[in-house]
Amino acid sequence: MRFSVAQFCGDNLGLNALLGFTESFSSNYFCRTCKAHKTTTRTQTKEDVTLMRNEVNHAEDVRHANLSETGVRRDSVLNNLSYFHVTHNQVADITHDLLEGVGPYELKLVLSSLIEDKHLTLEKLNFRITSFDYGFPDLKNKPSVIGKHELKNPEGAMHQSAAQTWCLLRLLPCMIGDLIPEDNRHWELLLLLLDCMEFIFSPSLTLEATVYLAAIIDEHHSLFLELYPNLHLRPKHHFMEPDPVAPPALAICSEMSKCLEKS
Ligand SMILES: [Zn+2]
Q: Please, what sign has the CA dihedral across residues 75, 78, 83, 87?
């Protein structure tokens, strides 16, 4: 039996450790796929094609042996495999990036803005959360009520599991959409995030869909920066941005076909 390693799945910390990158997401170069400095990523709405990691600059970074200047902790033993290189690993950690990262963070910011603009009250929101008919598939994911203190601290933890957050985000337009004016920009940000998630959580994507996804992520991140000029994009926003050089599906297919040809 012949086989080839195409991609490694894991959470952000596990992947960074396994592939030999920094294990701190507050370090200067925290991204596995690019060499953008953390200050650049705070306002960057799409990956910069000139900063992508590749086999050549990765070998230089390993030789340079300076974690704070490269984000590379060590060479990975996985680079000894015939058809795999750590810079080709495109896997993202969507539970941590979205359901426990960007999702609850933006949900709290947007709900706070809607409450501040008097489109709804926290009591009304919680009433709709508790009385909504979730149906059989979502009954076990029913979101918890949201506390006032949670909205005051958007960066703090939200008292919902990842499944509850996903359920709340998906169904929120049905729960409170009737209360929000059509041209509300904060609401638009949340709807854009839901559009992105629709693609990101899809079991498979066409190449064309990855191009469209990159465009709506760019639009979403730009709107975030416009609406919240005192905040910046977080590392989990950055991890949403697809690699412009090697779309995941193509990267996997080309490695696998090379392997099959040789064997
Ligand atoms: Zn990057």
A: negative
